[in-house]
Amino acid sequence: MPELTCHTPVGKLTIVEDESHVVALRWGGEGHDHTDLLDEACRQIADYFAGARRGFDLPVAFRDGLQGEVMRAMCAIPFGETRTYGDLAKELGVPAQAIGQACGANPVPLIVPCHRILGASGLGGFSAPGGVETKVALLKHEGAASLLI
């Protein structure tokens, strides 16, 4: 599968494409494959960090079942806003723990904004290097840091 690595303020991000869809985004890596989709994904990520973009317009391969439902629900959260695991649990009619597990298994963080999901009384986790610190950096970038207080 083609992979392309972009340099960002939160480190290297490697985007993976399969069948004309973004299927993964990983921290680190050294992908050097240029396709129209991967080049566009890097452009959109650069625009996001430059403050010129608030969301992503990329074909994402959503997983089946609950994982896919949670991914779509996360994509519906506007830039600069957050929801709790409980909010999504109520919306989807499942336990909050299931939402947390789905967020932790999100294969396309940032593009599918799992950083916008918080615990009821704290930040919750984040799978990126730096963990919660990276989550806070993304929320600050989006102007959602005031929601953390």
Account of the protein in words:
This protein has 2 domains: 3-50, no CATH class; 65-148, Arc Repressor Mutant, subunit A (Orthogonal Bundle). A hairpin with a 2-residue loop joins strand 2 (11-18) and strand 3 (21-27). The model has no long low-confidence stretch (mean pLDDT 92). It is built from 5 helices and 5 strands, in the order E-E-E-H-H-E-H-H-E-H. It is globular. It has helices spanning 36-50, 65-75, 85-92, 96-104, 132-141, and strands spanning 3-8, 11-18, 21-27, 83-84, 117-118. Helix 2 (65-75) packs across helix 4. The protein is an alpha+beta fold and 149 residues long. Strands 1-2-3 form a 3-stranded antiparallel beta sheet, with helices on one face.
Keywords:
5 strands, three-stranded antiparallel beta sheet, globular, 36% helix, Arc Repressor Mutant, subunit A, 5 helices, two-stranded parallel ribbon, alpha+beta, 149 residues
Short description:
The chain has 149 residues and is α+β, with helices and mostly antiparallel strands. It has 5 helices and 5 strands. The chain folds into 2 domains: 3-50, no CATH class; 65-148, Arc Repressor Mutant, subunit A (Orthogonal Bundle), CATH 1.10.10.10.
